[in-house]
Amino acid sequence: MDQYKIGIVGLGVMGQNLALNMADNGFPVAGFDLDAGKNQAAAAKFAGREMTTASSLPGLAASLEVPRRILIMVPAGSPVDAVIRDLKPHLQPDDILLDGGNSFFRDTDRRGKELEAVGVRFIGMGVSGGEEGARRGPALMPGGQEEAYRLVEPALDAIAAKVDGQPCCGYIGRGGAGHYVKMVHNGIEYAIMQLLCEAYDLMKTGLGMGASEMRDVFEEWNAGPMNSYLLEITAAVLGKTDPETGQPMVDAILDRAGQKGTGKWTSQNALDLGVAIPTINAALEGRILSAVKDEREAAARILEGPDLRIEGDRRETIGLLRDAFQAATFTAYAQGFSLLREASREYGYGLHFDEIAKIWRGGCIIRAKILDRMRAAFAAQPEMVNLMTSGEFAPMVNELVPRLRTAAGMALEVGVPALGMCASLGYIDSYRSARLPQNLLQAQRDYFGAHKYERVDKPRGQQFHTEWLE
Ligand code: 6PG
To answer: What are 245-294's pLDDT values in tens digits?
Structure first.
């Protein structure tokens, strides 16, 4: 084989698995990694297929069909810039570079412009699904130059996960739109993971349940309309035994969360755009608070709380937690989509929300049965401002919110931290309030800073000031 169809730079687990997936789908791949060890390991895995590893970047470029299609799978940040810099002299106009890492969307915007200036086409592509997804079918969120996307579309569709025969891949929008949508995906991912942790904590600490009992509960939840990947793996995690101690694996794991940054970017950007995503913010803060383990241990010896036990019928409480989790999770999707709506307007991405929901139905970490209904709801009502108020979902929200309210109240009462549940409830309560107390806040601002206010009985935009001091 002298001309390979796809080049992959970065042969870590994700790069290798995507390469194998491409080859399985009839696209011969040439790969390269700066690390000779990774190159060798990949070569061993690629043996016997229409795949090769190059020993240098120029060698990789020379082995590819023109225009070249090269997927970069290296850690986000400066490594991506370094690969582009080193590849550039070996590229020619019309070649296509794809960045499949979790790059910051503004970096993707910049890289796209820099490459466009030399005629090279650039696609920033969100890839979700972890190792297994990369190998068997990820969700793909490509953004950038649409005409370049059309040239790689067959390969991307072929390797993507499929739901009802449709690929979990589609053109997202201009510039860094693909990475932006992946960033928000991860924000929602953070929120759902936090909500699952809270349900787990309420069952473990509040109800005194063991890991295998909780596994059964999460499995049961997953068998119904809430079916999702994160529920599935939570049940699986709880069912795992630590080979060293013979105890549940989850109990052997230290309660300090890590993060690579995408969730934080989601919150930072939402603040910039003025969009409320409190459940996602709460999830981030849940991770931050978990990370200060030593401080918490010290505080636990000083600060007091109520008795952590939940009284009452256990089955009933579990049912309550199920409904609360469903309601709170739904608000996380609603917040994510409302952020996407504002970003699409602000950055001119031209996002299609039904298409995004369609892509997220399979392959990705936040895949869930309910995304199919979201897709249909957005298709029927593309201008919908918030999923919670849609004809499709408002009855469900109205039915479940009292349950969320009771569950959050229970968490508050027994002192089990429930940042995510409370944030979700606060989001719903604020959003459904035609009247909020910020009239008082406006008065305060005017009092100390003459910041002015609008009046209820005058047209919007007209500003007033009161001399508050006699
Ligand atoms: C995915 C994941 C993936 C990665 C996250 C983890 O969609 O496949 O989101 O991108 O696992 O970046 O992020 P944290 O390390 O921040 O939890």
So the answer is: 999 999 999 999 999 999 999 999 999 999 999 999 999 999 999 999 99
Q: Which tens digit of pLDDT belongs to each residue from 299-338?
A: 999 999 998 899 999 999 999 999 999 999 999 999 999 9
Class of domain 182-431: mainly alpha
* Cα 361 to ligand 1 centre (Å): 17
The answer, yes or no, to whether any atom of ligand 1 lies below 6 A from the CB of 189, is yes
**Contact 191 CB / ligand 1 (< 6 Å):** no
- Joined together, the tokens standing for residue 324 give 């609360």
103 lines ligand 1 (CB under 6 A): no
Per-residue model confidence as pLDDT tens digits over 226-239: 999 999 999 999 99
Kindly report, as residue ranges, where domains of CATH 1.10.1040.10 are found in the chain: 182-431
Å from CA of 186 to ligand 1 middle: 6
Q: Which two structure tokens, joined as six digits, stand for 299?
A: 């505080």
| CATH numeric code, 6-175 | 3.40.50.720
Question: Which CATH code is given to the segment(s) 438-470?
Answer: 1.20.5.320
Q: Which residues are catalytic?
A: 182, 189
Q: Determine if ligand 1 sits within 6 Å of the CB of residue 263.
A: yes
HEC profile for 102-147?
Answer: CCCHHHHHHHHHHHHCCCCEEEEEEEECHHHHHHHCCEEEEEECHH
